[in-house]
Specification:
Oligomer: heterodimer
CATH topology of the largest domain in chain A: Aconitase, domain 4
Largest sheet of chain B: 5 strands, parallel
Mean pLDDT of chain A: 95
Distance between the termini of chain B: 56 Å
CATH class of the largest domain in chain A: Alpha Beta
CATH superfamily of the largest domain in chain A: Aconitase, domain 4
Structural class of chain A: alpha/beta
Structural class of chain B: alpha/beta
Strand content of chain A: 15-25%
Low-confidence stretches of chain B: none
Strand order of the largest sheet of chain A: 6-5-4-1-7-8-9
Radius of gyration of chain A: 20 Å
Number of helices of chain A: 8
Shape of chain A: globular
Number of strands of chain B: 19
Largest sheet of chain A: 7 strands, mixed
Order of helices and strands of chain A: EEEHHEHEHEHEEEHHH
Shape of chain B: globular
Chain lengths: ~210, ~475
């Protein structure tokens, strides 16, 4: 996994319109992020062109002009801004794979679904949980195409005129910054797993499949 | 004396292989594998030259991609065929048991786990599929994982985890006429929302839960992920043991007796701490239906679709507006009577034998509406076989349903079973997301009985008003 330190770029807000009211889209689910017809791949790469496929293209495969990622400068977005419960639904890791393949490395939302949140870190994507009011305060600047800088080391979002701090779990932060291989570090603890298996087999022999 | 514990606390503590600063290694007893979320994990193992630590802790089957028409004709779709073949090849290479597509045990992972006795109380169970929560019905800690974690479990038989919080959902009273486990689950999601359980493991308690059959509990736990919680649990009891006794992979002889003795200790202690508790009265519930594109968009079949002006929260209101536009429904109008084009009975939520019996119970002497195409997809080959022994297939076929081969089918529409744009479906599955059952398709989640009733009436209807 690539090491993550800071990301600077365009931020694309996912917005719903109701009359004149603009608000962040909540419950963006994994079927929206990457529809099932793209899950037939046996690779991790190449899914970026199908990110948000049914919102991004019409049934003939033509771009839908009004969708944010089809507009300049958001085609080059590195940051996504969304409403509550981002990534709800399935466990498909194709969701973060497609986001990353598009070029997005940071997602800012008031809350995330658990499995998606976890899957993001495993792929070097930083999901930032922030108060909805604070997120709303950066929509205008984002819509105007202002570049945001996300500094993970200092846990800061840097805008032209101000800085906003964000929280991140220290273990996840460390893994992102070092680009750690989870499996490698777990395998270093193999002796604990060996011990556990012996104890498990003694105490609860039926737990071992026959 | 030690602190009173919940069943989740107990399973968690009995599976900690390593406890570090802020992170733990949770030992995984069972790993279910299917074709969609595993190929990249096996590829990862190969690339780093790693082995599967405990191949016998895993069981694999193809379900998501598989056609539900005659299997002897092959898979049909080229990409699906490659994915299914890749699963079979990977299992062979790494020594994992694979149930072939021609085997009568083939079916949806979450249906075959319990059927085979692979799922047992007190175990930790994972699968690269969010509906792994289903297995919590047996008092197992079961949840979905992503592909990176599939690879992690294959290589290490553990997961890096943080303990979740305890959430008790207590469902009191008794279900009235035609209110099923599906309605209980939808009522919970409606009550707490699709993010209500985020960060928690939900334990279902109360008379309405204990009086459910084991299969009903599976439906309830299955839908836990739609309420945002990765895992749902019901404490095991005599019904659980009865269900598991004699299953092919269940413990046998003296080991069975020891296991049951242990499983009886897996109830939550009185006075155990829950970070959150809600109570629901099952006696107040009616058959439910979803109107929108989120499983929390639940109303009673005799209720009305929401009015936008009644919704105070801006983002919620614009989400509802988007949903209603997508679903092509009129705000404030009754949900009953909305015409449908398709009916789907099946999935890991409602594809078990009791679901099929329930749906079939209202069908004799009736015909599917001419405007409706209706299909039944049993959850596994064994469910299908059982249904055929009981003559349920004939009841469905005589009424005008299609009787299919087992698989995930139109729950996620990865195979040929999908809605056409704008088609409206009464479905026993678990998600009504935009495009879930096919691009621009419109899904209403209901119980099997309500789905069968809708097929007959040609519209969303109240099964309680249907003469049997």
């Amino acid at each position: 996994m690539d090491k993550f330190s800071s990301v600077k770029g365009i931020a694309a807000p996912m917005i719903n319109k109701s009359g004149n009211q603009l608000s962040l889209m909540m419950n963006i689910d994994t079927d929206m992020i990457i529809p099932k017809q793209f899950l037939k791949t046996i690779k991790r790469s190449g899914l970026g062109k199908n990110l948000f496929d049914e919102m991004r293209y019409d049934s003939n495969g033509n771009e839908i002009d009004t969708f944010i990622l089809n507009k300049e400068p958001f085609r080059d977005a590195k940051i996504l801004i969304a409403g509550k419960n981002f990534g709800c639904g399935s466990s498909r890791e194709h969701a973060p794979w497609s986001i990353l393949d598009f070029g997005i490395k940071v997602i800012i939302a008031p809350s995330f679904a658990d499995i998606f949140f976890n899957n993001s870190f495993k792929n070097g994507i930083l999901p930032i949980k922030m108060d909805e009011d604070i997120i709303n305060s950066i929509i205008d600047e984002s819509m105007q195409g202002e570049h945001l800088e996300i500094n993970l080391v200092d846990q800061e979002i840097i805008l032209k005129n101000r800085k906003i701090n964000f929280d991140v779990d220290s273990v996840n932060k460390d893994c992102l910054i070092k680009g750690l291989d989870d499996i490698g570090s777990t395998l270093e603890k193999s002796s604990y797993i060996d011990e556990f298996e012996i104890e498990n087999a003694n105490k609860r022999p039926w737990n071992i499949p026959r | 004396m030690s602190e009173p514990k919940t069943i989740y606390d107990k399973i968690w503590e009995s599976h900690l292989a390593y406890e570090g600063d802020g992170d733990c290694l949770l030992y995984i007893d069972r790993h279910l594998i299917h074709e969609v979320t595993s190929p990249q994990a096996f590829e990862g193992l190969r690339m780093s030259n790693r082995k599967v630590r405990q191949p016998s802790n895993a069981l694999a089957v193809a379900d998501h991609n598989i056609p539900t028409t005659d299997r002897s004709l092959g898979i049909g779709d080229k990409e699906s065929e490659i994915q299914i073949q890749t699963l079979e090849d990977n299992c062979k290479e790494f020594g994992i048991e694979y149930i072939k597509t021609s085997d009568k045990r083939q079916g949806i992972v979450h249906i075959i786990g319990p059927e085979q006795g692979f799922t047992l109380p007190g175990l930790t169970i994972v699968c690269g599929d969010s509906h792994t929560s289903t297995h919590g019905a047996f008092g197992a800690l079961a949840h979905g994982i992503g592909t990176s974690e599939v690879e992690h479990v294959l290589a290490t038989q553990t997961l890096i985890q943080k303990k979740a919080k305890n959430f008790q959902v207590k469902i009191n009273g008794a279900c009235k006429d035609s209110v099923t486990a599906k309605d209980l689950a939808l009522s919970v999601i409606g009550a707490i929302g699709t993010a209500g359980g985020t960060g928690y493991v939900i334990e279902y308690t109360g008379e309405a839960v204990t009086s459910l059959s084991v299969e009903g509990r599976m439906t309830l736990c299955n839908l836990t992920i739609e309420a945002g919680a990765r895992a749902g649990l019901v404490c095991p009891d005599e019904k659980t043991f009865e269900y598991l006794k004699g299953r092919p992979m269940s413990p046998k002889g003296n080991e069975w007796d020891l296991a049951v003795e242990y499983w009886k200790t897996l109830s939550s202690d009185s006075g155990a701490f829950y970070d959150k508790t809600i109570e629901i009265d099952a006696g107040n519930l009616t058959p439910l239906v979803t109107w929108g594109t989120s499983p929390e968009d639940v109303i009673s079949i005799d209720g009305n679709i929401p009015n936008l002006e009644d919704i105070k929260d801006d983002s919620k209101r614009s989400a509802v507006k988007r949903s209603l536009d997508y679903m092509n429904l009129i705000p404030g109008s009754p949900i009953k009577g909305v015409p449908i084009d398709r009916v789907f009975i099946g999935s890991c939520t409602n594809g078990r034998i009791e679901d099929l019996r329930e749906a079939a119970s209202i069908l004799p002497g009736k015909k599917v509406s001419e405007k409706v195409t209706a299909m039944v997809v049993p959850g596994s080959g064994l469910v299908k076989e059982q249904a055929e022994e009981e003559g349920l297939d004939q009841i469905f076929i005589e009424a005008g349903f299609e009787w299919r081969e087992p698989g995930c089918s139109m729950c996620l529409a990865m195979n040929a079973d999908k809605l056409l744009p704008k088609e409206r479906c009464a479905s026993t599955s678990n998600r009504n997301f935009e495009g879930r059952q096919g691009r621009e398709g419109r899904t209403h989640l209901v119980s099997p009985k309500m789905a069968a009733a809708a097929a007959i009436a040609g519209c969303l209807t109240d099964v309680r008003e249907m003469a049997i």
